[in-house]
Amino acid sequence: MTVAVLTILLGTGTLLYITTIYNSQLNAQFAAYPEPVANKLRRAIYYTNYNLQPKKALKYYREALELASELQMDEFSPEMLGLRIYVSYMFEKASLIPKAAQALERVRGECLSWLDGVGGKEGMRERRTLVLTKTIAISVKLAEYYASESMQDLETAEERLVWGVTACLKEKRRREVEGVKEGEGDWLSDEEIIAALEMLGSMYEGKNQHYLAAPLFLQALGLCPPESCHTVVLMNNLAISLAQQNPPPSFAPSEPAASIASQISDAREWALKAIKIAASIQPPKRDAECDEGCAVATINLGEFALASGDIAEARKKFIEGKSISKGIGFKDGIQKAGECLNRMDKKT
Hints:
Blueprint: H1 12-19, H2 35-50, H3 54-70, H4 78-93, H5 97-117, H6 125-147, H7 154-178, H8 190-206, H9 210-223, H10 229-243, H11 260-280, H12 288-307, H13 311-328, H14 331-347
């Protein structure tokens, strides 16, 4: 079953997560690099951030990397990983997304080889955390590239994102069971893990695989503070997934398929929870996600009512959702509620 719900696209946490990969030493200072390398980097950065010329920038990045190799800089140090990753950022700025992906794939492959061969050795705990964290971030960024209009390779995007989420959760679980070992350092924050889970869930939603999206949103919800407005977004996303469960028979062959009425009922409960949570959050913690989440949940309640055959309740929620959207200047909500009401008017 398909319900024409309104969604809130990826939250700010996800967008922050997939861009922090470029917050490297290159953005801070050049003091961490030997002067010959720093000189080449200054020119590369100039032709990346101030006078974008990909050919010239790439020339200086390559020269910087060659000098760094001659000076025996550690390829997996924060400085060197940052330098190599920044090459893909340059390509992205130049809208050369396939080249950006190719550059990141090269770094990812080398990081995976390092983790397999060196990462488990004594004295490498801190470095392992760094390399694993970067590899996960690279995988998430690659998923964004592959899913873009420039590449449209959703299969590879899914593979990279599944790997990133799995590796992220596996390391989190290992630390919870074994404890953090001396020298390992901090792991990814809950916000970053939520972002990765949400991105994968949204990808499955886009492929109409809501039965795979719902568990991811639920897991993300378990990590999100209840007083956070992003909880409202996650509850909405979960409600949407639950309303459109369509698992193939092979997914859970021993379990009877849930009825449409049951799916709609579950979705409705989560949408109502989203509204209740949004109403309980006050400034300064309250932000646009709460306001827009409340509007979205209200409009979706109208869709759920319509799917259940309750025409009067559906119209009431669409009108209410449109009013809320107007009050906060939420254009998508105004448009969606208006479309829903027009659709109902045509049928009457």
